[in-house]
C-alpha cells in the first residue's frame, strides 16, 4: 500500500499534521473539512488492514495519532448602532459614483435603490412597502413608503417620503420628524458608549448604563455542574458590563464543548443590573479519558491541573465537540510547567473509523518525543511461588517504552495465565504505577509496580454439557483433560474447547462454539463449569478456485477435487487434498500454498481458494 511514492507504513503522524496545516494555509480549508479528510484517510488504512494489505495493529494506522481540530473558527461580525448609522452617512460617498453619468442607466438605478432599501430602511419599515422612483427627469431618486389606509370609498394608498437623492453630488434627506429623531438618538447613543465596547441590546425605556452590569447568573437543567463552574466555563464575569452578544458567545462556547445536547438562555434588564439564566441539557454519551504515560503525575493530579485550564473537565469526554482538543492543549501546558518541552501530547480514540456509531469507548492521551524506559518491575502482593515466574515474563518488557495501555495487555495476556494454570481464578492486577528513578534531557528511567491480588486456589467439582446434538456428550468429554478434584487449569480448558471446534467444522458447522459458564463456590473452594455448545448452521461446499499454476496442472487438480458443490463442507478436506495430490504439481519447483475459506452467509456456503506460490518467491 502506497501514498504517491511513499510506502503507507512509512508515513509519520506529524507529517500528516503538517500536510493538513498546509492545506488550511494554502487552500483556505476549514477545520471541519480537514477533520473529514483525516477520517477518510483513517478509513483507507482500516480498509487496507481488513484486506490484509498492511498489519492489523493500531500502530500501523498513523491517523490514530494525528491531531486535527474539528470546530470552525468562523466568527460573525456584529455592527453596533453607531456603526450602522455611520454606514448610512457614508452612502453619500458611495452613491457619488452613480451620479457621475448624465443619464441614469436602468441597471445602476435599480441596484442603487436595492442597496439603499436594504441598508437603511428595511430594518425600520419591515411591515411596509418601500418604493423608489426618479423625480425631476433623471437627476433625483425619491424613496417613500406606501400602505393601504381606509377611505370614504374603501381603501386608498398613502405615501410618506423618506429620502431624496440628487445627483451628481448632492444628497438631501426628507425624513419625517419622528424618523429624524430616531436617527439622532442612535447617533447620540453611539457617541456615549466606549468604542471598544459592544453595544448591548436596548433594554426597557429609562434603563441606565448600570443596567448592563451582570449581577446574577443562574443555571438550570444540568446535574453535572454548579453555577460557579458554569460561570468559569462561559467566559462571563459577574460585575462586568455585558450585552446580548456576550450571552450568544457564551452559548456558542458551551455548545462547542459537546458536553450539552441543548443550550439556551434568557436575560432581563433592571436598574440594578442584568440577570441571565442558562438552560442546559447534559450530554449523557461520554467516555472516560485515560492518561497513558504522564509519569510525573497521578491521574487525580492531572485532572485537577486540567480543570484549572478547562473548568468543565471531570474525567469524561464527549465524542464530539472541542473539549477533547482543549484537554490536550491543557496537558501540553502542564508538561511545559514541568519543564518537559520536547514532549508532544497525542490523542487516540480506540475504535474510531469503525462502521458502527458509538464504537469509541475511551479517549487516550499519551506523550511522544520523550524516551520513557522501563528499568525494573515490582509485583507487590505476589507470593514467593509465582514471583520468579512473573519476573521471568517481565524481562521481555524491560527497556521498552512505558505505556500503561500496553502494560495492561501484558498483564492480561502474559501474566494472568500464570495464575490461571494454578487454579487461582480470581487473579487481579492493579493499574501500573511508574516511578521516575533517573531523568536526563534524553532519557527517563522508570521502575514500574504492578499490584497483584492472587486470590485462593479453586478445584474442579463438575462439568456439565448442553446444546450438543451432533456429537454425544461422552465423545466431547474425552477431549477435556480436567478431572474433578484437581486444581482448575483454565488455560488448558480453553485449549481443549478450541480443539472441539475443528470437530464440528469437519461436519460443515463452521461457526460452532463452546461457551464455558463458570460458577465459583468460595466457601468450598470449588469451581464448576457448564459448557454450552452452539452448533450454528450447516455450511455446504461452494466454488473451488486454484491460483498460481498453469492451466494444465489446474485442470488436473480440479478433477481430483472430490468434495462436490452442495455437499456438507469439510474444513479438513483441503489439507488432506494437498497432501494426496502433491505429485500432480510440477516436480522441479517447491511450492507453498495457502488455503482461504470464504463463508457466504446468505447461501450458507463456503468458497475455497488455493493459492500456490513457488517457495522463495516474493
Q: What does the model show?
A:
The protein has helices at residues 13-27, 31-50, 81-89, 91-95, 106-121, 177-192, 227-234, 244-256, 299-307, 323-338, 387-394, 404-420, 473-477, 490-505, 551-560, 573-580; strands at residues 2-3, 6-7, 129-135, 140-151, 154-166, 170-173, 214-220, 260-270, 273-282, 286-291, 316-318, 344-348, 363-368, 372-378, 428-429, 433-439, 444-449, 452-453, 459-466, 513-521, 526-534, 540-547, 591-600, 605-614. It is α+β, with helices and mostly antiparallel strands. It has 7 domains: 2-65; 95-176, no CATH class; 209-282, membrane protein fhac (Ubiquitin-like (UB roll)); 286-368, Ubiquitin-like (UB roll) (Roll), CATH 3.10.20; 372-453, Ubiquitin-like (UB roll) (Roll); 459-534, Ubiquitin-like (UB roll) (Roll), CATH 3.10.20; 540-614, Roll (Ubiquitin-like (UB roll)). The strands form 8 sheets. A 4-stranded antiparallel sheet has the order 3-4-5-6. A 4-stranded mixed sheet has the order 11-10-13-12, with helices on one face. A hairpin with a 4-residue loop joins strand 20 (513-521) and strand 21 (526-534). The longest helix has 20 residues, at 31-50.
SSE topology sketch:
Blueprint: E1 2-3, E2 6-7, H1 13-27, H2 31-50, H3 81-89, H4 91-95, H5 106-121, E3 129-135, E4 140-151, E5 154-166, E6 170-173, H6 177-192, E7 214-220, H7 227-234, H8 244-256, E8 260-270, E9 273-282, E10 286-291, H9 299-307, E11 316-318, H10 323-338, E12 344-348, E13 363-368, E14 372-378, H11 387-394, H12 404-420, E15 428-429, E16 433-439, E17 444-449, E18 452-453, E19 459-466, H13 473-477, H14 490-505, E20 513-521, E21 526-534, E22 540-547, H15 551-560, H16 573-580, E23 591-600, E24 605-614
Helix pairs in contact: 3-6
